[in-house]
């Protein structure tokens, strides 16, 4: 069993395992923990985040493959058209100092906040406080649990076409997948989403999609069926 077709393709192409022996079962999300139980304003108030800005949120380890440097450059590219955009970055990692320096050099001091470690209990609140969660991965994103967590909290997700993330979003809202992993592709989608040129799924639609298709009861039944067949 694998979490995504992307993993299955690697097993098939690199290790010559026939598709008939590969079962693709996605990961699930705890819909009782990740839920849309706060208004955006309430969530922002709890975190002391701005009430009057377009907020992007990304919870990522600060390492190269996560693409935070690319995202910062994309924010710099759109800030003149969207001066109220604000990016909250949760996470720790070896690149924090260099990323903070990059943000300063790009003139993003008023547009980016590095939150550091975000306690587990605040993660669902942060998702609900954001207009969009962004996952700018550059490689090795096997499934993309962040995508499900955010959707379960009612917040749409913009992701790059890496690993299993497109498999989650394509049946729901393919417009939320960038054309490429580079700065221009991410900036183009962000600008479209934040200006309304690209429609954003509603809070209820995001929540319903995650809760219906990726709740653990459903995923457990799929695993059970595979075990019973083996």
UniProtKB/TrEMBL annotation:
GO molecular-function term, one example from the UniProt record: glycosyltransferase activity
InterPro entries membership: Glyco_trans_1, Glycosyltransferase_grp1
Glycosyl transferase family domain segment(s): 40-211
Pfam families for the chain: Glycos_transf_1
Superkingdom: Bacteria
Classification via CDD domains: GT4_PimA-like
PANTHER family named in the record: SULFOQUINOVOSYL TRANSFERASE SQD2
Protein's UniProt name: Glycosyltransferase family 4 protein
């Amino acid at each position: 069993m694998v979490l995504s077709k992307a993993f299955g393709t690697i097993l098939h192409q690199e290790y010559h395992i026939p598709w008939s022996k590969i079962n693709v079962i996605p990961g699930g999300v705890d819909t009782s923990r990740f839920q849309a139980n706060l208004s955006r304003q309430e969530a922002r108030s709890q975190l002391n985040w701005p009430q009057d800005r377009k907020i992007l949120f990304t919870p990522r380890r600060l390492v190269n493959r996560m693409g935070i440097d690319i995202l910062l450059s994309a924010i710099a590219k759109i800030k003149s058209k969207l001066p109220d955009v604000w990016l909250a970055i949760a996470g720790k990692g070896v690149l924090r100092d260099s990323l903070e320096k990059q943000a300063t050099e790009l003139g993003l001091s008023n547009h980016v906040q590095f939150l550091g470690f975000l306690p587990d209990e605040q993660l669902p609140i942060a998702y609900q406080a954001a207009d969009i969660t962004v996952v700018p991965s550059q490689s090795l994103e096997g499934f993309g649990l962040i995508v499900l967590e955010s959707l379960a909290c009612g917040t749409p997700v913009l992701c790059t076409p890496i690993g299993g993330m497109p498999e989650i979003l394509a049946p729901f809202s393919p417009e939320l997948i960038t054309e490429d992993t580079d700065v221009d592709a991410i900036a183009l989608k962000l600008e479209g989403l934040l200006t309304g040129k690209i429609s954003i799924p509603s809070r209820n639609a995001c929540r319903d999609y995650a809760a219906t298709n990726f709740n653990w009861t459903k995923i457990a039944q799929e695993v059970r069926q595979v075990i019973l067949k083996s």
